[in-house]
């Protein structure tokens, strides 16, 4: 029997920004539960909840201080159980963000670990002595700026943090840490959870010899203030021991029915595709993985083709998940605006393209509305990197502003109180109530396109073979035993003409014209063709 997740559409909910029901300006579990019918109406299979566990919220929940309880900001364990029950009633699976590579510095494990060098948890985190001149043990950088080491005067040692200093890294070389983490995962599986989204899945282990990273050979730094990309990060992440832990985690989940794990590979470019393959190979590691390969500014046919073909060749028995937006990157409608005829045109084409990709696909809340990035002032920011490096870094707040439900309601129906991030007019204009039932809306298009994907055997189970066409046209065949569909996308503002070879016929949603064998793709046009043998640009 084919597993449910292999062609699933996963909807990411950012709990702070989905729906506030208790009136404090921050979204909560009761609000999510109330709005689940909207999610189910899209035709998606699963929701992914960003962190909801107890946390000081220094990094919006990615700094966990208790792995087995709900943060009061979001509700209670009873609220969580009610959410699971309602989701299952609606036919939705539920997975949560598991942030396992690091904890909050307020976690009881770390509080005990930092007290001395000989307490029971002294080796639960990555501690190291200063070098002879007092400098950090390695040259490793933090993603959020500065060294990845923080000196702790109580122990007289440095501890490792790949992100904020308030997010110390666990020492996965210690088997007691591994056992403790597995116990926390089991807690949620026993509570009825359907799986995990594994944050920074390639960061669990570090090099025990504490070797410094060499300089990057050809990769530029990621942004003006982020030195992380200037190193070849081979010793601080993606260590070979990672695979052993993933296999232990898989053994745990295999004790339950229909569980799925998707890992976030914190890497860019071809290396990220390679890691995705390694981590999903066979049936003893995680079920699927995604990377930031499609979450950046690259918008070219060759780029998308190289991502998919790279995974095909590097992991023939692995499984990918593809996404265009999430809570960490600017929304793709804004990110790819230079290639767009309009916001609506790029939103539709991106949806059609994503829903035609082989594997599992993910959409981020508001994406189904064609939502754009919110422009914020410094005074409105909450994201640590932006607060530290503004204006060179705008941070991630712009994609995290609240979901817009009712255009005319205070804060677009998200909350009766001032929300933690503002709702601005350009976002409110795209509210659910203005689009629901409107035939030409982006929301209705998402529903139609997800339904079309699920109804076509070639799009859910078919293999992918690319058609070699010049930029900016991306084209590929999806072929199953029952069906062959050719998917064609114009990644530019200009019209393009192609000739369809074979007895071609348009199938499903499209923005194109077929006159005999002559196919016209307007700017950001797309089409699905049956019975097409090949294509050529005229």
Structure commentary:
The protein has 538 residues and is α/β, with parallel strands linked by helices. 25% of the residues lie in helices and 19% in strands. The chain has 14 helices and 20 strands. It has helices spanning 29-41, 77-89, 108-113, 175-190, 241-253, 269-280, 301-314, 332-335, 343-354, 384-389, 425-428, 432-435, 442-455, 457-461; strands at residues 9-13, 46-49, 53-54, 66-70, 93-98, 127-128, 149-152, 157-160, 195-198, 260-265, 288-291, 321-323, 360-364, 463-466, 473-479, 484-490, 496-506, 513-515, 518-521, 526-537. α1 runs parallel beside α2, α4 (175-190) runs parallel beside α5 (241-253) and α6 (269-280) runs parallel beside α7 (301-314). The model has no long low-confidence stretch (mean pLDDT 95).
Keywords:
single chain; 538 residues; alpha/beta; 8-stranded parallel β-sheet; 7-stranded antiparallel β-sheet; 14 helices; 19% strand
Task: Give me a quick take on this structure.
The chain is of the alpha/beta class and 538 residues long.
- Strand sequence of the main sheet, in spatial order? 11-10-9-5-2-1-13-12
Number of separate strands: 20
- Largest beta-sheet characterization: 8 strands, parallel
Count of DSSP-assigned helices: 14
Average pLDDT, rounded to a whole number, is 95
Measure the end-to-end span. 44 Å
Q: Classify the beta-strand content into a percent band.
A: 15-25%
Determine the structural class based on helices, strands and strand pairing. Answer: alpha/beta
Question: What overall geometry do the principal axes of the alpha carbons give?
Answer: globular
Low-confidence stretches: none
* Helix percentage range: 25-40%
Gyration radius from CA atoms, angstroms:
23 Å
């Amino acid at each position: 029997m084919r597993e449910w997740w292999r062609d699933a559409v996963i909807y990411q909910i950012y709990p702070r920004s989905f729906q506030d029901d208790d009136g404090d300006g921050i979204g909560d579990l009761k609000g999510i539960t109330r709005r689940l019918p909207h999610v189910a109406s899209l035709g998606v299979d699963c929701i992914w909840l960003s962190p909801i566990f107890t946390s000081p919220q220094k990094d919006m929940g990615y700094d966990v201080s208790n792995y087995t309880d709900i943060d009061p900001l979001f509700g209670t364990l009873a609220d969580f159980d009610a959410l699971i029950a309602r989701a299952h009633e609606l036919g939705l699976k539920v997975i949560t963000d598991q942030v396992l590579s690091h904890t909050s510095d307020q976690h009881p494990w770390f509080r005990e670990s930092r007290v001395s060098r000989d307490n029971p948890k002294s080796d639960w985190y990555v501690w190291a002595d200063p070098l002879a001149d007092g400098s950090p043990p390695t040259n490793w950088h933090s993603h959020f700026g500065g060294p990845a080491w923080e000196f702790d005067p109580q122990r007289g040692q440095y501890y490792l943090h790949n992100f904020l200093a308030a997010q110390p890294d666990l020492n996965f070389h210690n088997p007691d840490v591994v056992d403790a983490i597995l116990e926390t995962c089991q807690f949620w599986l026993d509570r009825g959870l359907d799986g995990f989204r594994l944050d920074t899945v390639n960061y669990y282990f570090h090099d025990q010899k504490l070797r410094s990273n060499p300089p990057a050979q050809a990769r530029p730094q990621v942004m003006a203030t982020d030195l992380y990309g200037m190193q070849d990060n081979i010793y601080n992440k993606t260590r070979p021991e990672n695979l052993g832990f993933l296999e232990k985690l898989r053994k745990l989940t295999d004790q339950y029915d229909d569980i799925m794990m998707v890992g976030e590979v914190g890497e860019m470019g071809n290396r990220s595709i390679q890691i995705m393959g390694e981590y999903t190979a066979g049936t003893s590691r995680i079920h699927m993985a995604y990377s930031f390969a499609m979450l950046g500014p690259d918008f070219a046919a060759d780029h998308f083709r190289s991502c998919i073909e790279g995974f095909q060749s590097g992991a023939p028995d692995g499984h990918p998940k593809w996404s265009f937006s999430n809570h960490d990157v600017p929304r793709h409608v804004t990110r790819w605006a230079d290639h767009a005829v309009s916001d609506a045109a790029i939103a539709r084409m991106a949806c059609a393209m994503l829903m035609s990709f082989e594997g599992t696909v993910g959409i981020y809340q508001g994406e189904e509305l064609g939502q754009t990035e919110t422009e914020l002032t410094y005074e409105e920011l909450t994201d640590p990197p932006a607060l530290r490096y503004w204006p060179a870094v705008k941070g991630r707040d712009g994609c995290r502003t609240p979901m817009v439900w009712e255009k005319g309601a205070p804060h677009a129906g998200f909350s009766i109180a001032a929300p933690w991030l503002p709702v601005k007019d350009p976002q409110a204009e795209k509210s659910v109530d203005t689009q629901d039932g409107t035939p030409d809306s982006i929301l209705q298009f998402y529903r139609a396109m997800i339904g079309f994907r699920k109804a076509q055997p070639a799009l859910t189970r078919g293999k992918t073979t690319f058609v070699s066409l010049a930029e900016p046209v991306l084209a590929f065949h999806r072929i199953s035993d029952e069906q062959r569909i050719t998917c064609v996308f114009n990644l530019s503002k200009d019209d393009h003409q192609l000739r369809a070879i074979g007895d071609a016929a348009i199938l499903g949603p499209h923005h194109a014209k077929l006159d005999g064998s002559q196919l016209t793709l307007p700017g950001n046009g797309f089409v699905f063709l049956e019975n097409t043998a090949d294509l050529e640009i005229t």
